[in-house]
Amino acid sequence: MNTAITLSNLLSNQVPLAMTDKSQFKQGRYVYSFGNGNAEGNEEMRAVLGGKVAGLAQMSAFGLPVPPGPHDYHRAVHLVSKQGGNYPPGLESNVAKSLLMVEKLTGARFGNAHRPLLVSVRSGARASVPGMMDIVLNLGLNDHTVRELETQSGDHRFAYDSYCRFIQMFGDVMMGFDHHHFADILHKHKKFADLL
What we know:
Helix content is 44%, strand content 10%. The chain is mainly alpha-helical. Helix 6 (145-153) crosses helix 7.
């Protein structure tokens, strides 16, 4: 099997994602993808991908309706940590190419105010315990994209609640700003608006 499959081959549909194998994980790539009935990786790669991603990849390969997504190989996270927050060469371009694949599959674009792509950032381990890992939902929402979410959903409260959750999670997980600060502010505004 050819282990030099590139994401550009995958994007042009020249090579099915399901044809990948473990040897690719030794080639210096940091991001792998799944979606649309294909997957890079499978259930046997829990040690490399983490339990959650390995399961999603396997379900996607079986043809189950799994939302497409890129996932970082844990080695990339380890290298970023080891290098004091600096990305290893190629990581940013790997992420950008994987997001491009997700955009192609969904018809949405990350940061686009008219058809925004929203993604979840989840941590994972070989044996995942629900509720114990950090998570950021709705990455891609901002002052502009939230208006489109409101239009698409037809629900003002849902759209802004989703945006609020994103800000809370990002502040807590990425910035270390304790969750209760957001909850206190939100409670005061809801009380003022007579929503409680």
